[in-house]
Amino acid sequence: MAFPLMNESNVCGSDVIAEYSVAIRKLARGLLKGTSESLALEPGYIDKAMNMDRSLQILTANLYPPCPQPELVMGIPSHSDYGLLTILMQNGIGGLQVNHGGKWINVDPFPNAFLVNNGDHLEATRMSIPQSIGPSPDAIVAPAEQLVDGENNRAMHIVMIYKDYLELQQSNVLDGKSCLERVKT
């Protein structure tokens, strides 16, 4: 999908942003459907359980101009993405990193593609437009009963209302720890 750049003729891009946000929501719901199916759940399980008809969607735009001294570049500190998905569009300049197995790994931008992230990442020296897709603020977030048996497959996190999780995430200093680490059982 292609979106024209913001300009005066489209009221500072509000029409473009609205169209983009609708398309991202549709993409997110399709990804959640596939995720449900991959877990052998009904296709709409996550969508329904997280009350996605009332989901929270946050658009952020970050611009990191080139720096003549790369060692002094300041981006966003390492953090945990708090929604179900973060769908990221970035220009061709690298800088995004994800933490995998305790190591930071560069994620090279792929032209004309979205990066779908549900983990920690670090932003530096680039432009990115993440849009976090989360459940309804009053959704109760818990593992599907079919996936938890109490012995071998126990719940790994406490059951929480999503708005409480957001408040917890926003109340902590971004110290490189995932907010999920704070709510483990």
What characteristics describe this protein?
22% helix; 185 residues; four-stranded antiparallel beta sheet; 3 helices; alpha+beta; metal ion binding; Jelly Rolls; five-stranded antiparallel beta sheet
Structural summary, described in words:
This protein is of the alpha+beta class and 185 residues long. It has a single domain (13-183), classed as B-lactam Antibiotic, Isopenicillin N Synthase, Chain (Jelly Rolls), CATH 2.60.120.330. Helix content is 22%, strand content 24%. It is built from three helices and eleven strands. It has helices at residues 14-38, 45-49, 162-171, and strands spanning 56-59, 62-63, 76-80, 85-90, 97-100, 103-106, 115-117, 120-123, 127-134, 140-141, 160-161. The strands form three sheets. Strands 1, 2, 4, 7 and 9 form a five-stranded antiparallel beta sheet that branches. Strand 5 and strand 6 (103-106) form a beta hairpin. The longest helix has 25 residues, at 14-38. The protein is globular, with a radius of gyration of 18 Å. It holds the Pfam family 2OG-FeII_Oxy. Keywords: Iron, Metal-binding.
